[in-house]
Amino acid sequence: MNLEFGTRAIVALSWAREFSVPDSALQPDRPPVSLFVPAPGSDRVEVLHLGDHQVVRAPADILPLLRDAGDQRFVDDRALLGLLHASGLAPSVRSLGVDALTYLDAPFEIVDSEHITVSVDAEDLAQLREQSPRDDASSTELAGWDQCFVLFSDTREDPVAGAGYWAPGGLLADTTVLTAPGLRGHGLGRYAAALAVDDALSEGLVPQARIKEGQDAANALATSLGFELVGSLMTLKLHNGF
User: Fold this and answer.
1) CA dihedral of residues 136, 47, 3, 107 (deg, nearest 10)
2) How far is it, in rounded angstroms, from Cα 96 to Cα 19?
3) What residues are paired with 147 via a beta bridge?
4) pLDDT tens digits along 122-154
5) Cβ pair 160, 180 in contact under 8 A
6) What is the pTM of this model?
7) Residue 23 backbone phi and psi in degrees, to 5
8) What CA–CA distances, in Å, run from 217 to 67, 77, 105, 166, 212?
9) 150 vs 86: CA distance, rounded Å
């Protein structure tokens, strides 16, 4: 792994705080742990893998079942779905998928283009999202924006690509990229992403790309930018009273 130890330590600290476990619990130099955390009032079962560490967060009624499972390495959402269904504790549950957690800690050269104009107006990014297929727009949605970069070409009035990040915890910058349909494969998304990544790093943040299982294009883009896989987050949604 090319990520610096300090970067991996920041990633571990951020996720430890997100899952309400001790700050040092998930550090890369600590022995592997498997932790179970109650989530009062939640309708989610979440399984975080970070390096060799695992954290399971779920409603208190379900935690004993998960803690007592023979195989506590929950890496397959189908197996976890089967366990919950068979228990009778979660009569209705569905998987929201598995996110690959990838990170970057080194900037790279950005070559300016005379044919591209860059906007930092979130309304321009909103316009790009409105003009994109619903699945693409939803897969790149963040709860908020700390910074965004939207590209316009000298031959088009509408935005052609955009990227942005949100850093609610002040450590990781959740980064997302969107390119207009019909203009993919020309490096526009990569250029926008490079601007967002460079800005996040300049703010002392660690860029994070959460890539849903099956999003091959997003995975290829993240890999080309140098993002490295560190862990995964599996999420299941409970219904009927949970």
Assistant:
1) 30
2) 18
3) 165
4) 888 888 888 876 766 566 666 678 899 999 988
5) yes
6) 0.89
7) -55, -35
8) 36, 22, 21, 21, 11
9) 48
